[in-house]
Amino acid sequence: MLLIKNATVSSCRNNDKECVHIVVDGAKIADVVRGEMPSCDFDKIIDADQLLVLPGAIDPHVHFDTPGYTEREDFIHGSQAAAAGGVTCVIDMPDTSIPPVTDRAKFNAKLKIIDEMSVVDYALWGGVSGNSFRANSWQRSMQGLRDVGVVGFKTYLLSGMHTFDHLFPLELVEVMRHAGDMGVLVGLHAEDRDLVQTRSAVLRTAGRFDPKAYYESRCDPAELNGIRQGVAIASETGCALHIVHVGSSEGAKHAIYSRKNGADITLETCIHFLEFSNDDLIERGSIVKTAPVVKTKKDSDTLWKLISSGGIDYLASDHAPCSEAEKNTGSIWTDYSGMPGTELMLPYIFSEGYSKGRLTLSRLIDVTSMAASRRYGLDYRKGRIEKGFDADFVFVDPDRKWIVEGRNLHSKGRMTPFEGREFTGKIVRTICRGNTIYEEVGGITTKPGFGEFIKRGPS
After folding, report:
1. Exposed, middle or buried by CB within 10 Å (0-12, 13-18, 19+), for 220?
2. Predicted TM-score (pTM) of this structure
């Protein structure tokens, strides 16, 4: 048995905190003791020494690329980055695997490989691509993936991947209607394909290869239109819809309005949408390039307000790193779109959200663990410091300042637009299922293969 003594935890009331002693039996929390320290023969005692102890974070949107584009990232490095960032469970996307996870056989092939690689627990998205839809077996494939416990089905209205093509709007209607009948969640990359492709063609024909041209090709109403379309289909079909990586504040507000009127819709945003704007993209180039594109400063300010108020449900990293060569091809159109994020997601929102008073402590925990756990059916074991839950914790020195250095990141891709930024709040230990998997002194402390696959629980 393990005792974590003198842990400062959230009382789940705004910024209120309390000191507790946490008893861990194997992989589970056996008790949370207030007051006197329990008297028992413990195999190990960790003194938190008044450090802030949070539930292990959940990153519900990562691209660890295994099997597939492992020259960019793989499950070993991605999961080590997660562990160093206080993330104890990731949810990996289906589209950047080769082959994509669009049926049960491909799921099993992927699971067999990553089972020996991850140092954190993980769940998986399934997907319905244009390719799989047009193969005419997509309904049976969705059923098979639901039965093995995927959290939902990723779809695109605009995709840049030939192996995971977009769905046309009428195809998305069919998929979401079937998903509604099955009672499963659909995740949507929401951008207006026709608008983006038309703008891009015009700009490229005009000889524009600069970062501002990329922004002009994908700025609103591109994302707003995509969100409107997804929300309309969800309202019509009764499908549970999750809109991924929201960067459009107007799009977010439209989805929130529809949710208030009965639609089953959730939203995530990412730290790059909270921090950066089109001005940063124009000035700094492809290191800030993502899809959807970062929007205006007004958008980022509004997204902060929405994630603070609960309008945006939770945070995700959209972790998608690459090599320096892929980020610097000489043209903004061919420079890779994405950045490493899972190692900085919790540190960023702790520093710029909680430490600066934009988020309460209880809201911080909600946006980094509890809300995603609820949405994806993982709340039977993840997201809380309570008896019976997995013993997943992150220890934070709340007032300590530190500097982001890409060379110290654990991901394969270490180019980050946060290079040189000072954050407040330093992660000093991460524990997953009762085992220390990361320490500030010593680094990653567990071997690949420790992480377990976590199935979606019963709805």
Report:
1. buried
2. 0.97
